[in-house]
Amino acid sequence: MTTILVTGGTGTLGRLVAERLRADGHEVRVLSRHAQPYAVDLREGGPALDTAVAGVDTVVHCASTQTGGDEKAAGHLIAAARRAGVGHLVYISIVGVDRVPFGYYQAKLAVERQIEASGLGWTVLRTTQFHDLLVRIFQGLAKPPVMLLPAGVSDQPIEVAEVAGRLAGLALGAPAGRVDDMGGPEVRTLDSLARAWLDATGRRRGVANVPLFGRAYRAFREGGHLTPERAVGKGTFDEYLAARLDGGAGRRA
């Protein structure tokens, strides 16, 4: 039996990774800011982090935030893993972090580089965005009467449970470095995805595609965050919506 620490283990992805590993009979420690007994803010580190990592064979690093601090958090985690003699650090990253000059992507790339230089055995998996993230974005954009979308941008959403299964498998294997990217089954325009979500939820909104400016927008428009050659995911966005909305539950104008 392997002892595995999952950071961000109460989040969208980390929770499923922890569940999968436990179902396979492994001892799993869940680390997050509020999860006892391993309640740790990785941005602060400290003795509680050393306690969480002590005796761990593998760390699956799912914790992340778009408000800043990922690099500092990774530094604390790597230092604690070194002290504890952890054999394998698995990190979840995003397709295109080396091609899209977007702040959050640049932080994820910096963490990749920290891990590569850590001296630990490591594995990095990059995936496209989860279905759940698109829904959260659309919920925010649908607050006004007209949804404003960045013109010319597509996405390749993937089912988070499939990513969790892949991460769990990687955690149980030997360090593999940068593994093949994992993309969703379809590349679709944001316009198409937004209209599918509006139809599924019964919301009545206009949709307008608005040209934006800047290097990050240009990189998204050019598909720097996509991996059509690695469209290995199975669950489509429409299937995700049908399963989550249960034939109309949750619909509102």
UniProtKB/TrEMBL annotation:
InterPro entries: Ergot_Alk_Oxidoreductase, NAD(P)-bd_dom, NAD(P)-bd_dom_sf. It comes from the Bacteria. Residues 8-132 form the NAD(P)-binding domain. It holds the Pfam family NAD_binding_10. Coiled coil: none annotated. This is NAD(P)H-binding protein.
